[in-house]
Amino acid sequence: MSATPLLLRTIRREPTERTPIWLMRQAGRVLPEYRAIKAHWSLLEISVQPELCAEVTLQPLRRMPLDAAIVYADIMTPLVGVGIELEIVEAVGPVIAQPIRAAADLERLRAIEPEIDVPYLLETLRLVRRDLDASKALIGFAGAPFTLASYLIEGRGSRNFLLTKSMMYGEPALWHALMERLTAIVIDYLRAQAAAGADVLQLFDSWVGCLSPQDFREYVAPYSASIFDALRPTGVPLIHFGTNTATFLDQMREHGADVIGVDWRIALDDAWRIIGEDRAIQGNLDPATLLAPWPAVEERTRDVLRRAGGRPGHIFNLGHGLHPTTPVENVERLVELVQRETAGLGDRG
User: Fold this and answer.
1) What is the pLDDT of residues 229-274, one digit of tens each?
2) Rounded Cα–Cα distance for residues 222 and 220 (Å)
3) What residues form DSSP beta bridges with 238?
4) Domain of 286?
5) pTM (whole model) above 0.90
6) CA 127, 189, 140, 149 torsion-angle sign
7) Residue 133 is assigned to a structural domain of this protein
C-alpha cells in the first residue's frame, strides 16, 4: 500500500484500493465529545486555542477511520482576522455588526496577513499535521468570495439574497471591488494554510446556487478562476464545492480545481458526465439521509457508489455538511459501509 494518503492518490485519479471518505462538518456537530467542549467555549473561542482546536479537528478520526481531517474553523475566520466585527449565533450563523453596503465600507476590509491575523489557525494546522497519521490527508479550506460577500452585504444568512443581488445588478463597480478584495484575502489565507501543512484545500461556495448560470459567469466565475490560478504553484490539490450548482458545473470545471464537489440535487453520474472523467469528483449523499432508518441510508449510499461505478477519482462525501441532529451511529456505519463496499476497488478490471 502506498505511503501517499489515499485521498491524494484519488484526486490524481490513480487506481486505489478503495474509495476515500471524509464528511463536511465531520469535526464537531454530531460528536458527543465535541458537545462537551462546546458547552464551555463558542466556535470562535475554540478556534483561537490551537491545542483545543487541533483536538476538535482530530476527534472524528479517533472515532472513525476517515481518510482526512478538515481543520476546525469557520468560513468567517479570515474576516474576523482582518477586523470585521461579527458573532456566530447558534441556529442563525454569522451575524455582521456593520454590513458592507457602500463604497466607504470597503475600507474596513483590509488585506490579510495570515501569520499576524490568524496565527492560531496556522498553528492548529501544524499541530494536526504533526499528530495525524501519514496515511491521512489534512484539508484546509476557505469560504469563496461570493458566499463571504453575501454575509457581508446581507448582514447574516439569507433565503433570497436580495441585498446581494441588488448590489450586483445596481452597483456593479462596488460589487467587483468587493469581490476583488475578498479574492485577495482568500488567496493569501489559503496559501498560508498550504504552507502550514494542509495537503488539500477546499473552496466552499455555500450560497452561490442562488444565481443563474449567466450571473455566475459574470459576477463570480472570474474570481474563482483567479483563486485557483494563484494557488496552483503551491502544488496542493484543490477542491471546488458549491451547493445547488448543477446548472453551472460546466463552468466550474473550467476554473481549474482538481476536484469538483457536487450536492445531492444532481445524480453523481450525471454530474461526472458534465465535469468530465479527466477530473475527480466529490459527493454526494444528501446529509438528511443520515437521519433516516439505516436501511434507507444503506440503499442511498449504495446508489451513489453504483453511479460512481468504481471509476478512479471518486471521493465519497455528503452533498453538504452533517446536520447537528444526525445520529452518530449512522455516521459511523456510513464510513464502514463505504469502505467495505469499495474494498479491492483497484483490483477490479
Assistant:
1) 999 999 999 999 999 999 999 999 999 999 999 999 999 999 999 9
2) 6
3) 201
4) 6-347
5) yes
6) positive
7) yes
